[in-house]
């Protein structure tokens, strides 16, 4: 099989129609279509990006080798609440049940928020519920907060409930 070394010019239009003016100038000078020149790159942005990528690369390499980067060596102490939560989590025997309850609580919270949002969109219901809430608040205040013995009984009931939940100290 012999290969032909002669090349044939390619045409973008039909042979009977004249080429468009843009392509005619390129065809007459025996040049192909050229791409426009690329805009000049912002070298300061390029330098910042390169330096940032190198910094990340160094952190990854040092962590992979087991060496701690300089920023991690001066780590701050964990807050007291985190330590308390870790100790409480370590004391829990049935972690599966606690996790399941937490997930169920999150789902219930989302469902109740959706239900309240749907009720709030109904035309008359929010106003009626607001009046019911104001009425109940007034009744509760009249029954439990107006006189001193009722107020002391309410405070004692709250303290007893608190001790039942938390445990006697």
TrEMBL record:
Cellular component GO terms held in the UniProt record: chloroplast thylakoid membrane
InterPro entries, per the entry: CAAD_dom, CURT1
Amino acid composition bias (Low complexity), ranges on this chain: 1-15
Topology within the bilayer: Multi-pass membrane protein
Domain Cyanobacterial aminoacyl-tRNA synthetase CAAD: 83-167
Keyword tags: Membrane, Transmembrane, Transmembrane helix
Record Pfam families: CAAD (PF14159)
Main location: membrane
Annotated TM spans: 96-118, 124-142
Stretches the record annotates as Disordered: 1-29
Cellular location(s): Membrane
PANTHER family membership: PROTEIN CURVATURE THYLAKOID 1B, CHLOROPLASTIC, PTHR33222
The name this protein goes by in its record: Cyanobacterial aminoacyl-tRNA synthetase CAAD domain-containing protein
Organism per entry: Erythranthe guttata (Yellow monkey flower)
């Amino acid at each position: 099989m012999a290969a032909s070394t002669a090349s044939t010019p390619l045409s973008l239009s039909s042979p009977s129609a004249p080429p468009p003016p843009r392509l005619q100038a390129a065809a007459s000078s025996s040049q192909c279509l050229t791409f426009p020149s690329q805009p000049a790159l912002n070298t300061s942005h390029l330098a910042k990006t390169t330096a940032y990528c190198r910094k990340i690369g160094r952190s990854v390499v040092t962590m992979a080798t087991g060496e701690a980067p300089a920023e991690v060596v001066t780590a701050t102490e964990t807050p007291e609440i985190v330590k308390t939560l870790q100790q409480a989590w370590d004391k829990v025997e049935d972690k599966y049940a606690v996790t399941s309850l937490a997930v169920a609580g999150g789902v219930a919270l989302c469902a109740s928020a959706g239900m309240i949002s749907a009720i709030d969109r109904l035309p008359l219901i929010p106003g009626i519920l607001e009046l019911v809430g104001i009425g109940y608040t007034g009744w509760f205040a009249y029954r439990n907060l107006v006189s001193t013995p009722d107020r002391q009984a309410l405070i004692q009931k709250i303290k007893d409930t608190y001790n039942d939940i938390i445990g006697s100290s």
